[in-house]
Amino acid sequence: MDPATGAQEITRPAGGRGATTFACGQCGATLSFEGTRTQRCPFCDSPNFVERPATVGLPDPQFVVAFVGDNVVAHRALDRWLGSRSMFADSALRDAKVEDLRGVYVPAYLYSTVARTSYTAQIGENYQETETYTTTGADGKSRTETRTVTRTEYRALAGDHLGYVSDVIVTASAGLANDELQRLEPFDLKQMRRFAAPLISGWITEEFSRSKDDCMKLSRGEAVDQIGHRLGRYMPGDSYSDLAYKTTVSWESLDPILVPVWVFAVRYRPDKPPLRVLINGQTGQIAGKAPLSPWKIGIAILGTLAVITGIVLGLRAYEQHRHTRQAEVLYER
Ligand SMILES: [Zn+2]
């Protein structure tokens, strides 16, 4: 174990004994199946999915966040999500098979670091001032009046911040981009367990397929962003501007981890890219975009316009009616 990074490299193929490895020719994900098999890639629904030997020399996962609930729970979440989007969704989506929902242990890295930050900012303090101004009264004469205005005074602030960032997770998956993983976060890392093969047995596991160096860079970037958000919350005064900071990281650790993700990828029209819905296998947090039907949206907009036109016409008729009534009343007098 490298004391500087806390990472450990063991040359042993990922996945348990008896697992079969398949590589996707479309998205590049390499997945290990035990028991359950699929003809298509769970990430992109590509049929270009071929068996191949497991890659050797990959990092062994150190930790795992386990799936909570089985695929019945995930189906329910997916049905709810599809249901709430069915109004404008492409009708081909309704014929999509929900059986294509698959649980995958996705490779990622868990990063932590001590971050030392020097920052500068302009801190705004509000104060109230009475100001006089000239106005022209109803009599046409100008006169002087007073009003209270809020002004902000800025002063320079510089300081140091020492903090621990411990919960950065970045993707090491070819099938799942980092921004997709971020939309599923957070994972509850208090429930994280030390890796043991039985924990993932029976599930699909993706091989680690992004380099550790790339994942390290990505992690540092996320950690520095987190520091920026923290500094923003921590700034004194009523407001601040020109926040600039420089962070130095030390005592970094980068550990291979597996995180649970339900993947639903469906090619519902041959000419369209597949729809992909992702569900956090621990929390049920869902991320996806239902393809919308331009026809349905168009009809809905026309419908709304018709309702608005109806209201406007109705109001006009009412106004006309009222005017007529008022006229009638005048005549009575
Ligand atoms: Zn694929």
Give a verbal description of the structure.
There is one protein chain. The termini are far apart. With 333 residues, the chain is α+β, with helices and mostly antiparallel strands. The protein has 2 domains: 243 residues, no CATH class; 41 residues. Strands 1, 2, 3, 4, 5, 6, 7, 8, 9, 10 and 11 form an 11-stranded mixed β-sheet that branches. It is built from 5 helices and 11 strands. It is flat. Bound molecules: zinc ion. Zinc ion (ZN) binds next to loops.
What is the rounded Rg?
A: 30 Å
- Report the average pLDDT across residues: 83
Fraction of residues in β-strands = 35-45%
How many domains? The number is 2
List key phrases describing it.
333 residues, alpha+beta, 2 domains, 11 strands, 26% helix, flat, binds zinc ion
Short structural summary:
With 333 residues, this protein is α+β, with helices and mostly antiparallel strands. 26% of the residues lie in helices and 37% in strands.
Helix-strand blueprint:
Layout: E1 20-24, E2 30-33, E3 49-51, E4 63-64, H1 71-84, E5 101-136, E6 142-171, H2 178-184, E7 193-194, H3 197-200, E8 204-206, H4 212-234, E9 239-266, E10 275-280, E11 286-288, H5 294-332
Parallel strand pairs: 4-9, 5-8
Antiparallel strand pairs: 1-2, 1-3, 2-8, 4-7, 5-6, 5-9, 9-10, 10-11
Bound molecules: zinc ion.
